[in-house]
Design a protein that fits this description.
There is one protein chain. The protein is built from eleven helices and eight strands. With about 280 residues, the protein is an alpha/beta fold. The chain is elongated. The structure holds NADP nicotinamide-adenine-dinucleotide phosphate (NAP).
């Protein structure tokens, strides 16, 4: 993305995710003067204005002067914001990053507005290493899809899906996924300590191992299975470790965890639609 982009973006909610997105956009040379944020909290507005150089306001009505409007409030706050905004909308592209809220519900709150994209980013967006699942309503144009790809692409990679229900699976995998990975890092740290290493050594070793292995997986032309086989020599230490993981059914436990998370995403979607 280059500074030649002319559309203006309005963020409703100036919290963690908006801050991450604006930081990413600025890093991509998006002019912060083309960004406006509405948030009721004065300290957040001051921070965003001073630190990131964006325009800020406490008045939701002002946000409609933008070409793209991003809903970045908590899911439970979305309905009241949408109801207030509904009579003011023109032809803007709406993007919701609120976890769990279905477009059928959001569109209804927006007076059956037909041009909405739902995005599911994850927390590594804070360091521009996120991955965002995206789904667009049928009337969203190709150019608008490109625009959303640019905006969410400013904080990492993007993955479009054809069915909105797939976002529940994405929520369970990449949305909740960072927590699973932190859990595994913690486990490896605890393991290191149990083997007599210090806390500091344990942390350094486990984080570097996750980082190195995932970067190797990303750049290597070999499959994950091949990479795993390459460190698993017959009769060696890794083989013993992996055998123990298999006996403990760790892989099955992770699959079940994601299935449970997806189930929960569906229930939350139902509940959020009813509020
Ligand atoms: N953080 C993540 O990694 C992540 C990942 C995926 C999806 N999401 C989604 O992103 C959304 C934002 O998350 P977040 O972590 O950035 O939340 P957050 O830090 O709580 O930010 C939301 C902001 O919106 C403000 N707000 C509340 N009502 C408003 C209104 N009527 N008009 C304008 N602003 C209003 C809030 O103010 P108050 O604090 O005063 O209420 C807060 O500053 C959520 O829906 C979440 O599901 C986040």
């Amino acid at each position: 993305m280059h500074s030649s982009i002319h559309y203006k973006i309005g963020f409703i909610g100036g919290g963690n995710m908006s801050t991450a997105l604006i930081t990413g956009l600025k890093n991509q040379n998006f002019d912060p003067q083309r960004i406006q944020v509405v948030d009721p909290d004065e300290s957040k507005r001051t921070f965003l204005s001073n630190r990131l150089g964006v325009n800020v306001t406490a008045d939701l009505n002002e946000i409609i002067q933008n070409d793209v409007i991003v809903f970045a409030v908590k899911p439970q706050q979305l309905k009241s914001v949408a109801l207030a905004l509904a009579p003011l909308l023109k032809q803007q592209l709406m993007i919701s990053i609120a976890a769990g809220v279905r477009l059928l519900d959001l569109s209804r709150w927006l007076n059956h507005y037909p041009k909405i994209i739902r995005a599911m980013p994850n927390t590594p967006a804070q360091i521009q290493l996120g991955i965002t699942g995206l789904y667009a309503m049928p009337l969203v144009s190709k150019i608008e899809i490109e625009t959303a790809t640019e905006i969410l692409g400013a904080v990492g990679s993007t993955l479009w899906v054809e069915e909105e229900a797939e976002l529940d699976a994405i929520t369970a995998i990449s949305g909740s996924g960072p927590a699973y990975v932190f859990y595994l890092i913690e486990a490896l740290q605890d393991a290191a300590i149990s083997l007599g290493l210090t806390e500091e050594q344990a942390q350094q070793l486990s984080i570097a191992t996750f980082k190195g292995a995932s970067q190797l997986a990303e750049v290597s032309s070999s499959s994950i299975q091949t990479l795993r086989a390459q460190v698993t020599s017959k009769g060696g230490t890794t083989e013993q470790g992996l055998l123990s993981l298999e006996t403990s059914k760790v892989k099955q436990a992770i699959i079940l965890a994601a299935q449970q998370a997806e189930k929960r995403a569906k229930i939350l979607g139902d509940e959020l639609g009813k509020i």
